[in-house]
C-alpha cells in the first residue's frame, strides 16, 4: 500500500480552499520519452484540440490575431464581446478567413486621399486603396511605402500614383503556399483576399520578413480546423436579450463554440440563455460557467452544456473574492467540478490562475481538459493593444473584465451589473511584460507541460485523469517555506528564462 502523500479525494475533502501553489504532485514511474506524451484533448463535448490551450474572451487578450494564432497552434481563442455586434462579427469573420498563423494590421485609404507622412504607413509596407477606405469595400490598388518615398509631389491624391494591379492570393492558401509563391516571384509582400466575398476583401498581408520569421519559429502541430477546413474560433456572449441577436450574427459568421460569459454562472439568466442556444442552434457547442462548486456545475449540466468553465476570483486581475467574499481556491475548484463533470462526459476548462507551465500541469492533472489563459497571453504580439514602456520595461495593458474601465464598454453584464445604478469593480487595470509571439512561447510551454506529465508517469491527459481517480497520483500540501524553497531563492540576483 502506498502511504506516501494523499489521494486527491482525501486532500480536497478537508475543508480547505487550495490554489495551485498550495499543492505539489509526487513523481510517478517513467517508461516513455517526453515526446511520447500526447496533449490532445477535448474543449467541449464535440470539439477536439491538439493542445489544451484556450485564449480567454477578454478585450485585452482575444481578437483576430490571437484567435488565428491559437487555432494555428492547435488550441482555440474565444473572442470577447465587449464591443458592438458588428465589431465582434467582423473579428470572427476575419479570423475564419485565415489559413496562416498570424494576422497583420492593415491600413486602408480611398483614391481621393493623400498620404502626407510616412507615419501613415505605421509598420506596414503598403496602404491598400478601396472604394470607401475600409476593408469591406472593393480593392482598387495599393501604395507601397517605397514608391511613396520616391514621389516628388507628396500632396497628390492617391489615385494619381497608386498601383492598380496589386498582386493578391486567396486567403485559403496555407503558409507554405504563400511563402513558396512569394519566393518564386521574388515579392516583398503579397495581399491575401477572401475569395468568398464579392468584393474580394483583403484579410491579411504577408511580407518576406514574415516568412523568414515563421520559418525560424518552433514547428507548429496540428491546427484546429472545423469540418469546413477553416480555423476553429469561439466567441463569448452575455445573458441579455440583446445577446440572442448577437449570437445570431456570430453563428452566421461560423463560430464553432459559444461561451456564456458570467462571473457566477449558476443563474436563471444563464440557464435561460443555455436553453435558447440549445433550442435554436442544436449543433453549436455551449460552454457554461463560471462555476466552482458541484451544485453550480450540476445545475448547468442539467441544461445540456457541452463544457464547463471553472474559476471565480482566481485571475491575476480579478478581485471578486476580495470584493464579494465569494469564490474558491482554483485547485480545489478544478478538482471538485471535474469530479462531477467527468461523470457526465463534460470537459472542464480551468479558467484563471495560470502563471507558468507548472500551473497548467496541475490544472490538467486535477481533471481539467483545457486551461483558459488571460495574463499568460496578454503581453504577446497577438494580444490587442500597443506596447508601451514603463520603468524601462516594454509592456501591454491588461485589464479585468470586471474593472471599471472595461465595464464602461459593457462588460458589467458579465457581473449582472448592467442594470445597477452603482457600478462595483471586481477587477483592476494593469500591464504585463512583452512576451513576444505565442507562436514561439506556447510550443515551449507545451514541451514543459509534457515534461511535467512524464515526471508524473502520465503519457496523456486521459492517463493523468485515470491516475488521479484511481488514487495512484499522490499529492501533498506545501507549507509557505516549501513554496519558497520550490522557487528561485537565496540569490542576490538572477534572470529567469524558460527557453
TrEMBL record:
InterPro entries: Aldolase_TIM, CBS_dom_sf, IMP_DH, IMP_DH/GMP_Rdtase_CS, IMP_DH_GMPRt
Every IMP dehydrogenase/GMP reductase domain range: 18-489
Bilayer-crossing regions: none
Sites where the protein binds IMP: 316, 351-353, 374-375, 398-402, 426
Keywords: CBS domain, Cytoplasm, GMP biosynthesis, Metal-binding, NAD, Oxidoreductase, Potassium, Purine biosynthesis
Annotated PROSITE patterns: IMP_DH_GMP_RED
EC code: 1.1.1.205
List of catalytic residues: 318, 414
A GO MF term: nucleotide binding
UniProt-listed CDD domains: IMPDH (cd00381)
Localization: Cytoplasm
One annotated Gene Ontology cellular component of this protein: cytoplasm
GO annotation, biological process: GMP biosynthetic process; GTP biosynthetic process
Binding annotation for K(+): 313, 315, 318
Coiled coil: none
Activity regulation description: Mycophenolic acid (MPA) is a non-competitive inhibitor that prevents formation of the closed enzyme conformation by binding to the same site as the amobile flap. In contrast, mizoribine monophosphate (MZP) is a competitive inhibitor that induces the closed conformation. MPA is a potent inhibitor of mammalian IMPDHs but a poor inhibitor of the bacterial enzymes. MZP is a more potent inhibitor of bacterial IMPDH.
Domain of life: Eukaryota
Catalytic activity: IMP + NAD(+) + H2O = XMP + NADH + H(+)
Gene3D superfamilies per the UniProt record, alphabetical: Aldolase class I
Pathway stated in the Swiss-Prot or TrEMBL entry: Purine metabolism; XMP biosynthesis via de novo pathway; XMP from IMP: step 1/1
Free-text function comment from the UniProt entry: Catalyzes the conversion of inosine 5'-phosphate (IMP) to xanthosine 5'-phosphate (XMP), the first committed and rate-limiting step in the de novo synthesis of guanine nucleotides, and therefore plays an important role in the regulation of cell growth.
HAMAP family given in the database record: IMPDH
Assembly mode: Homotetramer.
Protein name as annotated: Inosine-5'-monophosphate dehydrogenase
Gene (name only): LOC104240449
Amino acid at each position: 500500500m502506498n502511504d506516501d502523500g494523499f489521494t486527491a479525494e482525501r486532500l480536497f475533502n478537508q475543508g480547505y480552499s487550495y490554489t495551485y501553489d498550495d499543492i505539489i504532485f509526487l513523481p510517478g514511474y517513467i517508461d516513455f520519452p517526453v515526446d511520447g506524451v500526447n496533449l490532445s484533448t477535448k474543449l467541449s463535448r464535440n470539439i477536439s484540440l491538439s493542445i489544451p490551450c484556450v485564449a480567454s474572451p477578454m478585450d485585452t487578450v482575444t481578437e483576430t490575431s490571437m484567435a488565428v494564432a491559437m487555432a494555428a497552434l492547435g488550441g482555440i481563442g474565444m473572442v470577447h464581446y465587449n464591443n458592438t455586434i458588428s465589431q465582434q462579427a467582423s473579428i470572427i469573420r476575419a479570423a475564419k478567413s485565415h489559413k496562416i498563423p498570424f494576422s497583420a494590421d492593415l491600413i486602408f485609404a480611398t483614391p481621393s486621399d493623400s498620404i502626407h507622412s510616412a507615419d501613415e504607413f505605421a509598420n506596414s509596407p503598403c496602404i491598400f486603396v478601396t472604394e470607401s477606405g475600409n476593408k469591406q469595400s472593393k480593392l482598387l490598388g495599393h501604395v507601397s511605402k517605397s514608391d511613396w518615398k520616391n514621389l516628388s509631389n507628396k500632396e497628390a491624391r492617391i489615385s494619381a500614383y497608386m498601383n492598380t494591379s496589386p498582386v493578391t492570393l486567396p486567403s485559403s492558401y496555407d503558409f507554405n503556399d504563400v511563402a513558396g509563391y512569394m519566393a518564386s516571384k521574388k515579392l516583398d509582400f503579397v495581399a491575401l483576399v477572401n475569395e468568398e466575398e464579392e468584393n474580394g476583401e483583403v484579410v491579411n498581408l504577408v511580407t518576406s520578413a514574415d516568412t523568414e520569421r515563421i520559418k525560424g519559429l518552433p514547428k507548429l502541430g496540428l491546427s484546429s480546423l472545423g469540418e469546413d477546413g477553416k480555423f476553429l474560433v469561439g466567441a463569448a456572449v452575455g445573458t441579455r436579450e440583446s445577446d440572442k441577436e448577437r449570437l445570431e450574427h456570430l453563428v452566421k459568421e461560423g463560430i464553432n463554440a459559444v461561451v456564456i460569459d458570467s462571473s457566477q454562472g449558476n443563474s436563471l439568466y444563464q440557464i435561460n440563455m443555455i436553453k435558447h442556444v440549445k433550442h435554436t442552434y442544436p449543433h453549436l457547442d455551449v460552454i457554461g460557467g463560471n462555476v466552482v462548486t458541484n451544485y453550480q456545475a450540476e445545475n448547468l449540466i442539467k441544461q445540456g452544456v457541452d463544457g464547463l468553465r471553472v474559476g471565480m476570483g482566481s485571475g491575476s486581475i480579478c478581485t471578486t473574492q476580495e470584493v464579494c467574499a465569494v469564490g474558491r481556491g482554483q485547485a480545489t475548484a478544478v478538482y471538485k467540478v471535474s469530479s462531477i463533470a467527468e461523470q457526465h462526459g463534460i470537459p472542464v476548462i480551468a479558467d484563471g490562475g495560470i502563471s507558468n507551465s507548472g500551473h497548467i500541469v496541475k490544472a490538467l492533472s486535477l481533471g481539467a481538459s483545457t486551461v483558459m489563459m488571460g495574463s499568460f497571453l496578454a503581453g504577446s504580439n497577438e494580444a490587442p493593444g500597443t506596447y508601451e514602456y514603463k520603468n524601462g520595461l516594454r509592456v501591454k495593458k491588461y485589464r479585468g473584465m470586471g474593472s471599471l474601465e472595461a465595464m464602461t464598454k459593457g462588460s458589467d453584464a458579465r457581473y449582472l451589473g448592467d442594470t445597477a445604478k452603482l457600478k462595483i469593480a471586481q477587477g483592476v487595470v494593469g500591464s504585463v511584460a512583452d512576451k513576444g509571439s505565442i507562436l514561439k512561447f506556447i510550443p515551449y510551454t507545451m514541451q514543459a507541460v509534457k515534461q511535467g506529465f512524464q515526471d508524473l508517469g502520465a503519457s496523456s491527459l486521459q492517463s493523468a485523469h485515470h491516475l488521479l481517480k484511481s488514487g495512484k497520483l499522490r499529492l501533498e500540501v506545501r507549507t509557505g517555506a516549501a513554496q519558497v524553497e520550490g522557487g528561485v531563492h537565496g540569490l542576490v540576483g538572477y534572470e529567469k528564462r524558460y527557453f
